[in-house]
Amino acid sequence: MSAVSPHEAAGMFVADRPPHGVAHTMPQLLDRLAAEHPDRLAMQEKRYGIWQPTSWKLYRERVRDFAHGLAQLGVRRGEIVAVLGDNRPEWLIAELAAQSLGASVVGIYPTSIGAEVTHVLEVSQARIVVAEDQEQVDKLLALHAEAPPEVRMEKVVYYDPHGLEQYTDEILLDFTAVEDSGRAWGEDRHGWLDAQVAAGSPDDLAVVCTTSGTTSKPKLAELSHANLLSMARQLTEADPIDHRFRYVSTLPFAWIGEQMLAVACGLHAGFTVSFPEDASTQKADLREIGPDVMFAPPRIWESMLSEVQVRIDEAGALKRGLFGWGYSVMDRLAQARNGGRTPSAGLRLVAVLADLVATRPVREQLGLTRIRRCYTGGAPLGPDVFRFFHAVGVNLKQIYGQTEICGISVLHRDGAVSFTSVGQPLPGTELQFGQRQEIMLRSSAVFRGYHRNPEATAEVVTPQGWLHTGDAGYLDDDGHLVVVDRLKDVVFASDGTMYSHAFIENKLKFSPYVEEAVVFSGGSLEPGADGGGSDDVMCGLLTLDPATVGAWAEAQKLSFTTYTDLASKPEVHALIAEEIAEANEDLLERIRVGRFVLMHKQFDPDDDEITRTRKVRRNVIAQRYADIIAALSAGEESVTIRSAVTYQDGTVTERSLPLRIFDLAGFTVPAGRARRQVWSGRK
């Protein structure tokens, strides 16, 4: 499709934004669910090994008590309450309570450090912060002691009192104490909260979500009740979800993805949300619940595949052979169904046996036996990973969207899943292409704007309601949207080929041994500086997956001490070289990786090298590792860097680290080495 300007694209439609058709706020939906299904399970949390249930009636009662408590603390319509912590029922209770008063919430990632917390509190002007535990309270107390005048934090309400018994700071309040106080306060104001909830409008601000912030400080996107609930309606129209579904909440509520499914879809459909006991028990709790619907970013699916690869590689030859046979049968079945074809009777019959002996045990191990709807988004998922899950009987779909459109606007449909596309627009979502094939979207889920940043809002939303996504893409022959990459990251080669660094990086990260990859050519990580010269060699900065590479090293009887030591081993370099050579076979010659270096450390969000959702900050990598990038581009054999080491006593020292640059120009895969199967880490 030929590109048109944003104004031309917008001009093809009427100037008014599509009506949202939403008649309720989320607290009003909660009231309705509590009235119609008081004893039905709304959510459950595992505590001390036992699932603690909460009915819709009890859920509403706790929300009302906490809402009264917030009102007693002075929270009023239009204000923002901040929540900092891991997923617990109290997170949702605080959110619905604030919304009941006409206020809204902004989530802060529990792994956020001082400057990140300060930025969100400063922009949101939140006076009340709901925090999870001692760790988060300590962050906030340290911030309060040195807070700039722009931070207006007055009270911190914590919901896990463990370790806080001796804290005497005046700004601290216990969550249950606020509930108790609110209950007593509300008894003298009968009907007051009902009036506040009834006065709520679907167009009121409900949630403020931070953007990914890959190149700068994150912006705060305002999402109304209508935005979120119209998105939920559109999603469930394309993929029916009802109250019988079960969902396990493991992703941060600060992320739009979790707000999208656990909160908006949860209230829209009335399904049960379950909270694992701890991060260390998530996998076991997932298997115990057996969710019907699931949403996870690519790193989760890649991690599941790595787990399968390790287990299969540890199995005996007979089991490996049996799984290989069963997988190939199920793969053919999945390919037929996704291609819109009816599998033959013979294939369906054999697939019953193949599923029984090979793929069903994998689903059981991963906790996906009952799964009916599952999604991935936030970043591209490698086609090979996608294909694996369909082959083992998991109905995985790619979704496409941004925080600014409530996380989803495009989705695969059942029986039409393409591993290289993101599907088709949801009902009620319009799609057009702007300049340089920029994807532009319009629907009732498009956000209200960036909080206290009208200039940035005007840059991304046209007066006609079109959202500039900043992504480049096109429609394939089946009318499915193919997302190439961020518009600023799209590269045009000298022959006119449009390609993406992210596509190459995902090819490399498909290897179970590669955790992160950053590729570039022309001596710069900035795509616009590539030049697209035919002589430029594609280079890569790679980090290892310490679990899988460590297991491989142990199997090879290769001793090592630290990650840095492991990454320096010649045998590991040869292993990764084989993986890159295999990935290169699926790439055009112009964009094949020719040189790489194994980094001495993993990329870390605390070092600003990746975001909390594990998106690489290319500008930080470019600045911090400029010497490595220059040496790769120059074709040098090695580069020496200075690395700071912090010891347990707090002392810091610097040391020199030589890093080998591996050139694949003279590398050949050992003769007779078969291509690695997708489900195995072995050659």
Automatic annotation (TrEMBL):
Keywords: ATP-binding, Ligase, Nucleotide-binding. Gene3D superfamilies: N-terminal domain of ligase-like. One of its GO terms (molecular function) is ligase activity. InterPro entries: AMP-binding_CS, AMP-dep_synth/lig_dom, ANL_N_sf. It holds the Pfam family AMP-binding. Residues 31-450 form the AMP-dependent synthetase/ligase domain. SUPFAM superfamilies: Acetyl-CoA synthetase-like. Coiled coil: none annotated. This is Long-chain fatty acid--CoA ligase.
